[in-house]
Amino acid sequence: MRDGRILHESVKEYWDAFETSARIGHSDYIVLQFGDGAELADELSAQVVLGKKRATTSLLRDTTENGKRLLKTGDLCVVVDGKNSPRCIVRILKVEAKPLRDVDEDFAWNDGGGDGSLAWWRSAHERYFRRQGVREGFAIDDGTVVVLARFEVVWPLRLANLR
């Protein structure tokens, strides 16, 4: 397990290499780890690297109740795995918030996982959000507002056009 200083340095070094490669001059990035544990973070970051995952879902309450900033179009994020090792950099293309019941098949497909169907996506995400609800003391239903973010991989370049 890495301590915060080493994690910060490994992510910062990865970001610095991207900055040099892309010839950009800003250091504003978000560290993005998918899932609620190391195993799921490994699985989901691997799906991004393989070109199978190009979207992510979170609960709106995670930003409003925890003081986190909502992702926005144009954000650059360093995706890390379950060991907090950088896997790639993504750019957020579109962010919208809507009730769970209004998520469509296209988004489910882009979020990756399972057979890509909306039924699979709903089942997996409802289980995931219920686990979180048990830990944090809240309930979810079809009206629970989720944040849907679509992204593209921008670095390393060998991953940028997968899908």
Give the helices and strands, then pairings.
Elements: H1 4-22, E1 30-32, H2 38-49, E2 55-59, H3 60-64, E3 76-80, E4 86-99, H4 105-111, H5 118-136, E5 145-155, H6 157-160
Helix pairs in contact: 4-5
Please give a handful of descriptors for the protein shown:
163 residues; alpha+beta; Sulfate adenylyltransferase; globular
Outline the structure in words.
- This protein has 163 residues and is an alpha+beta fold.
- It is 40% helix and 23% strand.
- The chain is built from 6 helices and 5 strands, in the order H-E-H-E-H-E-E-H-H-E-H.
- Helix 4 (105-111) crosses helix 5 (118-136).
- The radius of gyration is 16 Å and the shape is globular.
Short description:
40% of the residues lie in helices and 23% in strands.
Query: Sheet bearing the most strands, described?
Result: 5 strands, mixed
Radius of gyration: 16 Å
Helix content: 40-55%
Number of extended strands: 5
Strand content: 15-25%
What is the end-to-end distance? 32 Å
Under CATH, the homologous superfamily reads Sulfate adenylyltransferase
Which H/E pattern describes the elements?
Answer: HEHEHEEHHEH
